[in-house]
Every structure is written in C-alpha cells, then in structure tokens.
Design a protein that fits this description.
The chain is built from 11 helices and 8 strands. With 215 residues, it is of the alpha/beta class. It has a single domain, classed as Aldolase class I (TIM Barrel). Helix 6 links the parallel strand 5 and strand 6.
Length: 215
C-alpha cells in the first residue's frame, strides 16, 4: 500500500518526507486555503518535494470549467493529478482529461456505482471518503471492500485511494481489504509507527544496557 499525505502544508510534507516512505500528496481547496501562499505556488513547491502523484482539485462545477482548470493544473508539473468531483458534469471532464493523458483523481465518492462510473470514464484514482460515511453511521470501510471487489471482478485499473482517514486503524483495515493507497492527515501519518509496547521495550532494553555498561 502507498501512503499519501492529505495536506497543503509544506512543513508537514517536509516532516513526513524525513521518514522516507511518503509516496504522494493530496490537496483540496480547503487545505490550500489554510496556507499563506498562492495555491499555484504551493502546488508547484509540493511537486518538487514529492516525486509521486500530487492531486490538485478543480473548483469549477461545469464540464468546460473543470477541463480548463485541469489543463492549467497539468502544466505545473508531470506529477500533477487533477481532482474532479463525481458529479454529472464531472464525468465527461474525467473522460476528456484522461483522453489527453492527464491523470484524474475522482473525489467525493460515497457509493460503489460512483466508483464504477469513474473507472469507466478513465479515472486513474478513485477517492472514497470513509470517515465522512462513518460520521453518518454508515460503515465506510464496507465501501472500500465493495469497490475493490468490483474493480477486481472486471479487471479495472483505477487505483483505490482511501480518503477521509481518521486514525491508523483505517489504514490497517484498508490494507487488509487490498486498497492501493491511503491518504491521511499528518496527525494520522505521525501515529503509524506508534505502539506503547515498543516504547516500553526500548526503555527496558536501554535501562538494562546502562546497568551493564556501568559495571
């Protein structure tokens, strides 16, 4: 499974990069709005820091506008991926951008049928929002299981990018199902290695070693 960071923060990306396992970055208008630089400048900087896919989301809601914005984003760098919402106007935009060789990440997916349509339109990635489904008393991870099954049944190449990740167990569950990618906030990424028994074990080992060296 690949690990993406869901952020617009250069500082968070720099910290995550230090671990050496960051595969890509996803952004959206809300995340970029938190930063103090122009969003195109931020995206350009991110593409130089992370060589994997960097998702940039369109804000237009009409087909022509999405295509126009997507083409502009694609000019930033070769690793830019255009995020398009899975709405009716978005489907022909996905089709057109994909036909031009521009990779598309279809966002705001909440159903298996939306995921199937995105794949048929040529999407490179599908982003199901599991945390938001959990918030409304629906099992978000069941959606991931359904999408993986459908894509496997028909040999569809669209990558399942699990989004709206709230905690490390979401990452574990997605990996067990066979999702391709998890994108997560830095607060979750920073917890992936954490385990209290590791901390206790290391503390005990070092304490024992200190006793030996004192002798």
């Amino acid at each position: 499974m690949k690990f993406f960071l869901d952020t617009g923060s250069i500082d968070e990306i720099r910290k995550a990069n230090e671990l050496g396992i960051l595969d890509g970055v996803t952004t959206n208008p809300s995340l970029l709005a938190k930063e103090k630089k122009p969003y195109m400048e931020i995206l350009r900087e991110i593409t130089t820091m992370v060589k994997g896919p960097i998702s940039a989301e369109v804000t237009a809601t009409d087909t022509a506008g999405m295509i126009r914005e997507g083409r502009e984003f694609a000019k930033i760098a070769d690793n830019i991926v255009v995020k398009v919402p899975i709405i009716k106007a978005g489907v022909p935009a996905i089709k057109q951008l994909s036909s031009e060789g521009i990779e598309v990440n279809v966002t705001l997916c909440f159903s298996p049928l939306q995921a199937l349509i995105a794949a048929k339109a040529g999407a490179r990635f599908i982003s199901p929002f599991i945390g938001r489904l959990d918030d409304v008393s629906t099992e978000g991870m069941k959606l991931i299981e359904d999408i993986v099954t459908i894509y496997t049944n028909y040999g569809l190449k669209t990558k399942v990018l699990v989004a709206s990740v709230r905690h490390p167990m979401h990452v574990v569950e997605a990996a067990l199902i066979g999702a391709d990618i998890c994108t997560m906030p830095f607060s979750v990424f920073d917890k992936l290695l954490n385990h209290p028994l590791t901390d206790v074990g290391l503390k005990n080992f070092l304490a024992d070693w200190e006793k030996v060296t004192r002798k």
